[in-house]
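Researcher: Structure for this, please.
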Amino acid sequence: MFDIISFLPSTRKTTNSGWIMSNAVCCVHNGESQDIRGRGGVKINNDGWSYHCFNCGYTASFILGRNLSIKARNLLTWFNVPQEEIERINLESMRHRSIDGIIYDREKRQVADTLAGVRFKEFPLPKDSVLLDEEEHPMQFAYLLHRNAPTDYPYMVRSTDGVHWTRPHILIPFTYDNVIVGNTTRFLDGKQPVWLNDFQPGYVFGTDLQKHKWQYTIVTEGIFDALSIDGLAVMHNTVSDAQARLIRNIGKEIIVVPDQDKAGLTLIDRAVELRWAVSIPEWPKGIKDVNDAVCKLGKVATLLTIIQTKETSKIKIEIGKQRLVKRLRS
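Model: Predicted structure, token format:
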């Protein structure tokens, strides 16, 4: 397979989360000044690679068995890969095309057609943001481990100058179709506000985490709920009409898992209104949401409890809701 690493700038650094960082080659082609801070990241996987610029927001990827996209071709050109080599890569990829890849592309086209009306504007990250690194940001990394969040997500940290952004925090980029469309900041010092959100109406976190083979789409309230279980987060205790359309268009069986608190009762009512399945597991005392469950029970066990207790019957969902009310009162 094509070795993109050999075409990266010689000065580069590998982060503990697997990103190979070097000066981004895309910025000058996207209206930005030349990157000198090593903010272009490449991550290698079993079937190809992904690229993300944490400066201008440019993204591209390649998976063996699929055509090189225009964005991937542009990136390789900027890496000074010869044109004949780019064509050879594409031809070799097509020779490895599998039935699974054909099915995936067909499903992706169908989803793309369905989502044709869903659009979010690109939203560049703050210019002083840098990729979170275990060695440079041990407090933030420890927090992610504590929350059982996947450490390979491109979390960021904004630089501090002693005046601005002095509170310890983690910045979480929001993506849609692998384009950055917003972000949220989680402060870690226990002070208010805890969250600082900057995203567009109708956005649902986690759409890019979904896999085409999955049967279910699990809808949660919070960001770390979604991250810890590869689900979606509506970031509230209800679902807007625009969010509902986006979630439906993913094309999977939808299971809503509310927080087990008073606010979660509102999400249950909204799920019933939308005719979606609801899961209210009777987790041990002290577990109030999906992330708590993953931290205490593990990801697989949490998924099993969610799927085993999902209900579509309005009457059974109401019974589960009343049981939750009793538990909250006890």
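Researcher: Any notable elements?
Model: Residues 129-198 form one domain. The chain has a mean pLDDT of 88.
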